Amino acid sequence: MDKIISLIILGVMVGGIYSLIALGFVFIYKSSKILNLAHGQFLMFFAYVTYTLISQAHLPFVAAVIIVLVLSALVGVFVERFTIRPLMGQSILATIIMTFALGFIVEGIVILISKGYYASLPAFLPTGMWKLGAINISHQYLAILVLTLLLFAACMWFYQGSRAGLAMRAVAEDHITTASTGISVAQTFRLSWVIACLLAVISGLLLSSLYDVHIDLAGYGIAKGLPVILLGGLESMGGALVGGLIVGLAEMFGAGYIDPLVGGGFREVVPFILMVLILMVKPYGIFGLVKIERV
Amino acid sequence: MAMIPGDFSQSYERDIAIFRTKTQWVVMVIGLAIMLTFPLFMSNYWLSLFNFIFVTVIAVLGLHLVTGLCGQISLGQSALMCVGAYTVGVLSVKFGISVWACLPLAGLVTGLIGMIFGAPALRVKEFYLAMSTLAAQFIIVWVVSHLEEWTGGQLGMYVPPATIGGFSSASPSNLFYIGFILTIVMIAVAKNIQRTRVGRAFIAIRDNDIAAEVMGINLFRYKLLAFFIGCFFAGIAGWMWAMYLQNINPSQFTLKESLWMLGMVIVGGMGSTTGAVMGAVFVRGLDMIADYASAWAGTVFPTIGEQAFTAFSLIIFGLVIVIFLIYEPRGLYHRWELFKASYRLHPYAY
Question: What predicted TM-score, i.e. pTM, was given to this entire model?
Answer without folding.
Answer: 0.87
